[in-house]
Amino acid sequence: MELFNVYPINNITITKALGSRVWDDASTEYLDMYGGHAVISIGHQHPHWAKRIKDQLDKISFYSNSIKIPIQQELADKLGKLSGKEDYALFLCNSGAEANENALKLASFYTGRKKIIAFKKAFHGRTSLAVAATDNPSIVAPVNETSNIIFLPFNDENALKTCFEKEGNEIAAVIIEGIQGVGGINVASSSFLQSIRSLCDEYGAVYIADSVQCGYGRSGHFFSHDYAGVAADIYTMAKGMGNGFPIGGIIISPKIPAKHFMLGTTFGGNHLACAAALGVLEVMESENLMQNAKQVGDHLMNELKLIPQIKNVRGMGLMIGFDVPEELKALKGFLLNECKIFTGEAKPNVIRLLPSLALTMEDAEIFLASLKKAITHLQD
Ligand SMILES: Cc1ncc(COP(=O)(O)O)c(C=O)c1O
Q1: pLDDT score at 46
Q2: How far is it, in rounded angstroms, from Cα 45 to Cα 60?
Q3: Which residues line ligand 1 (CB under 6 A)?
Q4: Are 13 and 24 spatial neighbours (Cβ–Cβ below 8 Å)?
């Protein structure tokens, strides 16, 4: 049987990983500035995370949500403490799309309404409503198309206000990434997020902060929306939450009450996934990784801004993007194949940096030096 061919892949087989390094099957070492698409939050194969999973594996790895699973509460307590959202409630699932799907559904249950505001260049996942709220028609199947999603320009307060004035009483939710990832690292302005908060309050809509990529400490704040001083009603999470172990979740403001069976999942919140997620939070806390993301991220961003050939350096913490001019379009491939450095991209010409939050200053320097060398080489 063949694999269903949906991914354009690099001809590399990774067989070993540690921290911000991975090795291929010929023992070639790579610096990982991509984090397997923003997933590696505490570093590959962190020993504490691995031990947490192994210890749990020897006890029980799965039972359904029909019994008490105390490690879920342990995770909720730790997440509440680190995110500062102790009064929110946690619902666990398995992926980012599923987290957004549940958040949108919950907003609709809560408000009794159907319309969702999403933004240009947004990416919220590939399940039915999440993909409908994603601004990429090529991944929306005919069955996913719905007139319930309204796309507005990103960071445009007037357009948002006009939309609420016109149909505010039908809006169930506004869903927004604090920093758009797939869309090319576009940071939502504080005043835009504050407008979303106040319009949602005024019209009784739910503010959903898609924090799947920009959340979990990557921006230097637990949720990137925190920098605007606003609290969303629902935060969605996945990627860095398990450092590669599949887990997603939403945290829900106390104003939205739970009702039995309104949400549910077979695998969500299983013992093993919770152990992995606890391992992540424990390391984030003990190694001050949010602070590290801010420090190393600020340094990287400042240094990148000094490289004249790359444009529009932007982002926050260790979620950074920059534009690559046409004459350097081979840069990403050169970094991978010649410099042995993984980076991310966004179409058409953006390089995205999404490394582990434990990236060291030394590794940031190695990246910067290689990038400068690559640019010089490609220009000659
Ligand atoms: C902002 C955002 N939301 C949702 C998703 C979907 O997450 P998953 O691939 O885990 O379903 C992604 C994935 O890239 C994302 O970047």
Answers
A1: 98
A2: 21
A3: 95-97, 100, 123-125, 177, 181-182, 210, 212-213, 238
A4: yes
- pLDDT of 343: 98
Mean pLDDT, the chain, integer: 97
Question: What is the Cα–Cα distance from 380 to 378, expressed in whole angstroms?
Answer: 6
**Where does the pLDDT of residue 53 fall: very low under 50, low under 70, confident under 90, or very high at 90 and above?**
very high
Q: Residue 350 and residue 342: Cα distance in Å, rounded?
A: 14
What integer pLDDT is reported at residue 315 of this predicted model?
98
Cα(96) to ligand 1 centroid in Å equals: 5
Least Cα distance to 196 among 180, 177, 212 occurs for 177
* Nearest atom, ligand 1, residue 246 CA: 10
For atom 9 of ligand 1, the residue with the nearest CA is: 96
Mutate which of 40, 123, 245 to test ligand 1's pocket (most atoms within 8 Å of Cβ)? 123
DSSP assignment of 148-185 equals TEEEE-TT-HHHHHHHHHHHGGGEEEEEEESEETTTT-
**pLDDT for the residue numbered 380:** 81
Helices (DSSP H) in 58-156: which residue ranges? 70-83, 96-111, 128-132
- CA distance linking residue 120 with residue 135, whole number of Å: 6
Query: Alpha-carbon torsion 362, 332, 16, 270, what sign?
Result: positive
- pTM strictly above 0.90: yes
pLDDT at residue number 173: 98
